UniProtKB/TrEMBL annotation:
Annotated organism of origin: Glycine max (Soybean)
Keywords from the named record: Aminotransferase, Pyridoxal phosphate, Transferase
CDD domains assigned to the protein according to its UniProt record, in alphabetical order: AAT_like
Gene Ontology annotations of biological process type: amino acid metabolic process
Record-listed N6-(pyridoxal phosphate)lysine modification sites: K258
Biological classification of the source: Eukaryota, Viridiplantae, Streptophyta, Embryophyta, Tracheophyta
Cofactor: pyridoxal 5'-phosphate
InterPro entries, A to Z: Aminotransferase_I/II_large, PyrdxlP-dep_Trfase, PyrdxlP-dep_Trfase_major, PyrdxlP-dep_Trfase_small, TyrNic_aminoTrfase
Domain of life assignment: Eukaryota
Coiled coil: none
Domain Aminotransferase class I/classII large: 49-412
Record family assignment: Belongs to the class-I pyridoxal-phosphate-dependent aminotransferase family.
Gene3D superfamilies on file: Aspartate Aminotransferase, domain 1, Type I PLP-dependent aspartate aminotransferase-like (Major domain)
GO MF annotations, alphabetized: pyridoxal phosphate binding; transaminase activity
Protein name: Aminotransferase class I/classII large domain-containing protein
Length: 420
């Protein structure tokens, strides 16, 4: 009995060690902010303002605004006094129906309310998806570079992570040969992020179709993180992975956060795209429902506002957001051309961030991407994310959802840092 307890404790310690050693974006950005020299001044002797191009929060800019109709929807729901109590654990019925109808617009089949579960943002949806699939010996295939919350969730659930590469020379497409080589009978899911964070890529219909066929061939499902859904401004339109739900079961994760410019509201969804009915097996449905009994969803009045938010937001708001992102991405790429030590292999076509390669041979006294970012923060008060935080050493992630003036000034300071 004692040896069994020791084995359990060792397993817990192993998982916690992996979890606590996992880098988080917020964690490293906080450390970068702390490293900024309070006495850092510009040439005129005044303190340089901090320019953060590290956090994907569009509310921190003056360029992106939440639509008034969205705020009114929340106010109406709150002032009705009908939504002060608990919501059903899977989410308010009217919110689930509205999200099912919203997502179904882009699908060749109709989702039902029973396919939709409301979560506290997309982060909780990620945790739910990993928790639902966890079992002894399970592994999950994750993109590199990617979003480190997946690794953190997997570590806490005891799920092995296997990374497949995204290919910058092919517009950050999935290395499908690597997926086939990595997958085995214990692979529980292949995760993709589209539009891409941190790469700014948007997958074509054809590539998504090949991903679906590959997942089917290796006998696993697809987790499709679409938190940046519809934020596509290049040559390729956004195509939801659920389009291929008849080929392979898909778990779609999303939220209001980015498209409606409300990341702090923490209203997301976990959706089963599965017209063939794999997820509708009684045991699977029961497991999902029981797990949601453990969770607390977003505030009830926020859920109640969802139908009005979806119905009343005008298309012109979405178009303006897309135009702004296209404009700021263009500024970012143009400025990068004048900074020899960083190179952009692929102009972003979606989301709010991009990856650039760091050329260390052109830099003195810089050992790697983390060293670069900390010294840049200290000397120039500019925050960007080291690529190591998203799985790609000696790369950088730059968030371009920023005011054009701040973006331009930030790029000029990076150039100055390179020249100094």
């Amino acid at each position: 009995m004692e040896s069994g307890v020791v084995a359990v404790n060792n397993n817990i310690n192993n998982y916690e060690s992996k979890a606590t050693s996992t880098i988080t974006i917020k964690g490293i950005l906080s450390l970068l902010m702390e490293s900024i020299d309070d006495e850092n001044c510009d040439g005129g002797g005044s303190k340089k303002r901090v320019i953060s191009l590290g956090m994907g929060d569009p509310t921190l800019t003056t360029l992106f605004h939440t639509p008034k109709v969205v705020e009114e929807a929340v106010a109406d729901a709150l002032q009705s006094r009908k939504f002060h109590g608990y919501a059903p654990t899977a989410g308010l019925l009217q919110a689930r129906i509205a999200i099912a109808e919203y997502l179904s617009r882009d699908l060749p089949y109709q989702l039902s309310r029973d396919d939709v579960f409301i979560t506290c943002g997309c982060t909780q949806a990620i945790d739910v998806s990993v928790a639902m699939l966890a079992r002894p010996g399970a592994n999950i295939l994750l993109p590199r570079p990617g979003f480190p919350i997946y690794e953190l969730c997997a570590a806490f659930r005891g799920v092995e992570v296997r990374h497949y590469d995204l290919l910058p020379e092919k517009g950050w497409e999935v290395d499908l040969d690597a997926v086939e080589a990595l997958a085995d009978q214990n692979t529980v899911a292949l995760a993709i992020i589209n539009p891409g964070n941190p790469c700014g890529n948007v997958y074509s219909y054809h590539h998504l179709e090949k991903i679906a066929e590959t997942a089917k061939r290796v006998g696993t499902i697809v987790i499709s993180d679409e938190v940046y859904g519809h934020l596509a401004f290049g040559s390729k339109p956004f195509v939801p992975m659920g389009v291929f739900g008849s080929t392979v079961p898909v778990l779609t994760l999303g939220s209001l956060s980015k498209r409606w410019i409300v990341p702090g509201w923490r209203l997301g969804w976990f959706v089963t795209n599965d017209p063939s009915g794999t997820f509708r097996e009684p045991k699977v449905v029961e497991r999902i429902k029981k797990y949601f009994d453990l969770l607390g969803g977003p505030a009830t009045f926020l859920q109640a506002a969802v139908p009005q938010i979806i119905a009343n937001t005008e298309e012109i708001f979405f178009e303006k957001t897309i135009d702004n992102l296209r404009h700021t991405a263009d500024i970012c790429c143009k400025e990068i051309e004048d900074i020899p030590c960083i190179f952009c292999p692929y102009k972003p076509e979606g989301s709010m961030a991009m990856m650039v390669k760091l050329n260390l041979s052109l830099l003195e006294d810089i050992s790697d991407d983390i060293d670069f970012c900390f010294k840049l923060a200290k000397e120039e008060s500019v925050i960007i994310l080291p690529g190591t935080a998203v799985g790609l050493k000696d790369w950088l992630r730059i968030t371009f959802a920023a005011d054009p003036s701040a973006l331009g000034e930030g790029m000029r300071r990076i150039k100055s840092f390179y020249q100094s």
